[in-house]
Every structure is written in C-alpha cells, then in structure tokens.
C-alpha cells in the first residue's frame, strides 16, 4: 500500500485494515467566521464525556480562561483581539454623539476585530500519536477517527510530544493519555458529537469529511467575495504534511495567530531515514570497537 | 470605542535571530514531553552504557581479556536492568508495563525499543549469571554473543525515540543524534572498562577516546546544521548540561589518551592509575550529562513557540512563493 506514512490517502479506514463497507470518514468543519465564543462546545464535551473539571482560573488571555487543549480539555475556544485597518462597512445609520449632521468627527483608523475559534483534535490522516503508540492503545476507528483505548494505555507519554498540534496530554492523577474521541460512542448510535450538537451557530459542522471539504471551500469563496481576503481553510488539503485533517478549520488569519502550527508535518515521515542513520551509527560503534581491539597492544 | 486604539494582543515577537513571528499569547504550539527527569535521561544513559559494554565484553572475550569481558558483562546486565526499571518507573500506569509487549509496531521506536530492550536484557542477564555463577557456560557464551549483537542497537535506538516527535530540537537533529548517543555510549562503556579492568583496558581507552570524538563531532555538526533551532542546546539549563558533558568528555578522553601512552603498571604507575580512574569517571559522568542536556533541550524547544512557528512559516511562505 502506498503512502502508509506520508502523503494523500484515499481511504484512511481501509488503510487501517477495515473492510470496504465501512462508514464514510467523519469529521468536523469548524467555521470560525460564525463562532460567537459562547463555549457551549467546551461544556457539552465535558458533560458528555465526563471530562474532569478544572478550577476557575483567570488567565488574562481575553475571554480564554481554558488555556489550551489537553487531557482535560478536548474543545478549547481561543480568543484573539486584533487591531485591523478600518474596513469600509455598510452604513447602518447607528446613533452617534453630538448634534446631527456634525459628524465629521475623527473616526478611528483602527477597528477592533475579535477572532474566536473552537480548537479540537484534528484526527489526522497520518496521526503521529497513532504511529508512535507502543501499546496499540491508540487506534483508527471505522469512521477514520483516532481514539485512545484507556484500558490499554500505560501512560508512556510518547503521543504527547509526537502530536504536531499539541493535542494530547497525560491526565494528572490518572497517568493515562486522553483526547477527543469524536464522540465515538455517539457516532456508533447515529448521533452527532456533543460539541456539534450544542453549537448554536453551526460553527461546528459534523459530517462526512469529503462533503465538509466542499462546504468549506464554498464558504471560503463566499467570504472572499465579501471582501474578507484572509479567509482560509486549514487542514483541508490531503497533500499537506499530515495528509489532511478529519477535523479542519476555516480561519480568518494565519494559523499561528490561533496557536496552530503553520505547516505541520507528521514526524513519522522521516522515520525510515531516522532508522537508516541509527543503523549507520550502530555500525560505526561496532567497527570502532573492533578497531580499538585490533589496534591495542594490551 | 471612538478615539481608542485597540491594542494588538496577538504577539508579534522577534526571535533572538531577529525573525518576526506571531503566536497565541506566546504559548507553546506543541506539548512538552511528560517524561520525567531523572527517569528518562537515566534510562538513555544506562541503555547506552549497557549496549557499549556488551560489545566491549564480547571483543574482550574473543581477545583473551577475560577481566574486561567479565566487567563488561556484569555492567551490561546491571545497566540494562536499571534501564528497564527507569522506563517502568516513568510510566503513568507502571503496573501496565507489560502492555509494551502487546504488539510489535515498527512505526513506534518505543515499541521496537521495548522489544530490543527486553531481548537484550534477557540475553545480557543470562550471560552475566552464567559467567558469575559458572553455570551452563556454552549457553552463557551464546547469550553474551547475542547481547553483543544487539549492543550497537541499544546505543542508538533511544536517539530515534526522541527524534520521532514534533519537538524541533530533537526531530530536526535526527541525522546526528544517533551518532551523539552512540559516541557517548561507547565512551561510557570504555570508561567503565578502564575503571573495572585497568590492566586489560587498552582497547577500552581507545574506544573511549574514539567515542568521545564521535560524540563531539556529531554534536558540532548538528549545531551547525540546526542553526537557530540549536539554541536550546546552548542556552539555559540544557546548555549547562551539554557543556558539562563536553568538558567532562574532553577531560576524560584526554586522560584516557594519556593513560594509553603511559599505561598503569607496577612501577610509578600509582598516579597514572588514579588519573585513569578519574578520567573514567569523567567519561561516565559526561555521558550522563549529555543525556540530561538533550532531554532538557527538548523540553525548552517544545516550550517556545518560535522554534515551531518560525521554520514552518518560512517553509510555507517559500512553498507558496514557488507555487504562485
């Protein structure tokens, strides 16, 4: 089979060994252009999955008091406040200060823009976490998603630094690695994941990945036609470094602004070369040792 | 809102190399490893020491240096047991350590490594027991030879383990790290031979010098090629560990070289013996320091978003420029 480690894959579930009659690959399109930052997704996810709560914390990062994805956060809403050049907008005739008609008052040349994004596990086509898991705890489901089997995980923690998006972590006090399951239990009963169900603006759209990619592309074109040139899809390209994400995003700025890596590449891509270099080093050790004995009098 | 200028809270930072990049409040992009210290650096060190010792032990046996061979075998067994203990101790659920052997997964260096370690440890242990207790010598000889065959793998697989992550300082150094670890392991094994069997330690001294040379050269090459990604290896806590490793390694190798020229013998060799022992200890300490240094450099590399964002942004921009 081609592209086992890197590169586009047509059928990720089949590559993982499922029969051809498996269900279509399911994922998320998270359209940040309609996110209102309500965090219903964070709450619904924790409620459904029984994810432990954390103490109330005020992090000082706008309205983001969750911080980051982790073992106890499988949906994380990011908030970014930006100054942006003032856009020519439709005049709605909003009330202003001062007498009518005397509105040559100085308009600020900067606007405040608020970016809000609900981050989640990307369920990559080439998932580094899955590749490096030594116990077989992480596996690919028939839906093409990536899930941790918590009764097998022994907390070796290898998946944590392997993930190019920084999704997984080891749960303190528990010892095992945890992450979004794409509500595998709900999928198996024909339901959509909790976060998608709870999202009031349909920023989180759940469905077959192929269909979502088309929808995302249409939405980007729509936004660009409306003058929002920064609109871009992130993680939708099967030719990218992780083979495309099952859960991808429509962003309104560069990925790193949201804390996402600009150009992630699955670490496993370089594994064959790593082993070659290791073999060369091992051979050097053996040869050097032999030479040391041959070249020594005593 | 009129008249106020909203401040930009997405950071636009200049990295030390002067490149600007943006991040989410300066927060890390990837997660730092949850691996514990000293567990994992010690696991690396003991595994390398064991592997190198097995190789020297086998060659010692074949060349009639039986004291050196015995010392190497005992070290290999003890160090590999220690390595296994450190690995299990680091697990989040140590009681589930056997799950490492549920599957054999070629895409996971930790799976491959666990199988190598389990096989190697069994062989090294069996060989050492046979040697020390004098039981089943032919089986013991086979076991020791088997351990020696796996020895070189033991000195390098841990480098693949750290490189096969998203940690920039580790992943981008994947070409040279195996040589850093292998050289360090060989030097530590040579040092052990110098300590434990000084009268037969000629080859051990040579191996120690060569190993140190390999490690230093590979490290220099890696720093050069990594450019600004090598910063974590030179700054902060990791930088201190790496420098200690280099200084101790150079000192130890110099001492070993000196001892080669003037070997400890019966007459006037007291001082030379002591110096040899000090050099050997320095070599062992150096190997340990290097592992701590690499480990801490990885943590620092994961913690700072610039090491992830800057190279990726450059790569992406270059690709987009080509595709326009």
From TrEMBL, chain A:
[4Fe-4S] cluster 3 binds at residues 121, 124, 129, 163. [4Fe-4S] cluster 1 binds at residues 35, 38, 41, 199. The keyword Metal-binding applies. Pfam families: Fer4_11, Fer4_4. Keywords: 4Fe-4S, Iron, Iron-sulfur, Metal-binding, Repeat. Its cofactor is [4Fe-4S] cluster. GO terms for cellular component: cell envelope. Gene3D superfamilies: 3.30.70.20. [4Fe-4S] cluster 2 binds at residues 45, 180, 183, 195. [4Fe-4S] cluster 4 binds at residues 133, 153, 156, 159. Binds 4 [4Fe-4S] clusters per subunit. One of its GO terms (molecular function) is metal ion binding. Residues 1-20 are annotated as: Disordered. InterPro entries: 4Fe4S_Fe-S-bd, 4Fe4S_Fe_S_CS, FDH_Electron_Transfer_Unit, Formate_DH_Fe-S_su. It is found in: Cell envelope. GO terms for biological process: cellular respiration; formate oxidation. The keyword Cell inner membrane does not apply. Residues 26-56, 112-143, 144-173 form the 4Fe-4S ferredoxin-type domain. This is 4Fe-4S ferredoxin.
UniProtKB/TrEMBL annotation, chain B:
The keyword Transmembrane applies. Coiled coil: none annotated. It is a multi-pass membrane protein. It holds the Pfam family NrfD. Keywords: Cell membrane, Membrane, Transmembrane, Transmembrane helix. Its main location: membrane. It comes from the Bacteria. The keyword Transmembrane helix applies. GO terms for cellular component: plasma membrane. It is found in: Cell membrane. Belongs to the NrfD family. This is Polysulfide reductase. It comes from Phytoactinopolyspora halophila.
């Amino acid at each position: 089979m081609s592209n086992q480690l890197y590169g586009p894959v047509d059928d990720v579930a089949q590559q993982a060994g499922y029969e051809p009659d498996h269900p279509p690959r399911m994922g998320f399109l998270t359209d940040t252009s309609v996110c209102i930052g309500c965090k219903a997704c964070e709450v619904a996810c924790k409620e459904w999955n029984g994810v432990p709560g954390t103490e109330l914390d005020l992090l000082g990062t706008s309205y983001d008091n969750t911080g980051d994805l982790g073992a106890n956060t499988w949906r994380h809403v990011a908030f970014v406040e930006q100054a942006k050049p003032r856009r020519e907008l439709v005049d709605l005739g909003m009330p202003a200060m001062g007498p009518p008609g005397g509105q040559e008052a100085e308009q600020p040349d900067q606007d405040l823009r608020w970016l809000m994004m609900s981050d989640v596990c990307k369920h990559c086509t080439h998932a580094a976490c899955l590749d490096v898991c030594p116990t077989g705890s992480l596996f690919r489901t028939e839906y093409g998603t990536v899930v941790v089997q918590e009764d097998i995980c022994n907390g070796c923690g290898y998946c944590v630094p392997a993930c190019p998006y920084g999704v997984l972590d080891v749960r303190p006090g528990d010892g095992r690695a945890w992450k979004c399951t794409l509500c595998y239990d709900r999928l198996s009963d024909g339901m959509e994941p909790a976060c998608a169900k709870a999202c009031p603006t349909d920023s989180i759209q759940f469905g077959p990945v192929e269909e979502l990619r088309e929808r995302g592309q249409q939405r980007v074109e729509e936004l660009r036609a409306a003058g929002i040139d920064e609109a871009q899809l992130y993680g939708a390209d099967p030719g990218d470094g992780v083979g495309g994400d099952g859960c991808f995003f429509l962003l309104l700025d560069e990925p790193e602004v949201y804390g996402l890596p600009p150009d992630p590449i699955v670490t496993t891509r370089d594994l064959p070369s790593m082993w070659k270099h290791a073999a060369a080093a091992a051979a050097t050790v053996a040869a050097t040792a032999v030479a040391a004995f041959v070249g020594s009098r005593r | 809102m009129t008249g106020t200028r909203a401040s930009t809270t997405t950071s636009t930072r200049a990295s030390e190399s002067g490149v600007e990049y943006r991040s989410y409040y300066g927060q890390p992009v990837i997660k730092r490893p949850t691996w514990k210290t000293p567990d994992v650096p010690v696991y690396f060190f003991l595994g390398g020491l064991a592997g190198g010792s097995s190789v020297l032990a086998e060659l010692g046996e074949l060349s009639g240096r039986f004291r050196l061979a015995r010392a190497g075998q005992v070290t290999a067994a003890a160090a590999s047991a220690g390595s296994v203990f450190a690995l299990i101790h680091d697990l989040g659920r140590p009681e589930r350590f056997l799950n490492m052997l549920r599957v054999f997964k070629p895409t996971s260096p930790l799976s491959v490594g666990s199988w190598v370690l389990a096989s190697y440890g069994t062989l090294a242990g069996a060989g050492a027991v046979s040697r020390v207790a004098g039981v089943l010598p032919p089986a013991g000889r086979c076991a020791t030879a088997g351990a020696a065959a796996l020895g070189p793998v033991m000195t390098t697989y841990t480098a693949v383990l750290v490189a096969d992550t998203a940690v920039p300082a580790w992943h981008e150094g994947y070409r040279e790290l195996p040589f850093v670890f292998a050289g360090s392991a060989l030097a530590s094994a040579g040092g052990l031979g110098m300590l434990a069997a000084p009268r037969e330690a000629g080859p051990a001294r040579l191996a120690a010098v060569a190993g140190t040379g390999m490690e230093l050269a590979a490290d220099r090459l890696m720093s050069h090629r990594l450019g600004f990604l090598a910063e974590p290896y030179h700054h902060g806590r990791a930088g201190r560990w790496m420098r200690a490793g280099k200084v101790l390694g150079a000192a130890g190798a110099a001492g070993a070289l000196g001892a080669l020229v003037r070997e400890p013998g019966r007459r006037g060799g007291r001082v030379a013996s002591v110096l040899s022992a000090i050099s050997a200890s320095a070599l062992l300490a150096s190997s340990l320091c290097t592992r701590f240094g690499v480990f801490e450099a990885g943590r620092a590399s994961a913690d700072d978003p610039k090491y992830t964002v800057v190279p990726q942004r450059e790569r992406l921009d270059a690709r987009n420029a080509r595709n326009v």
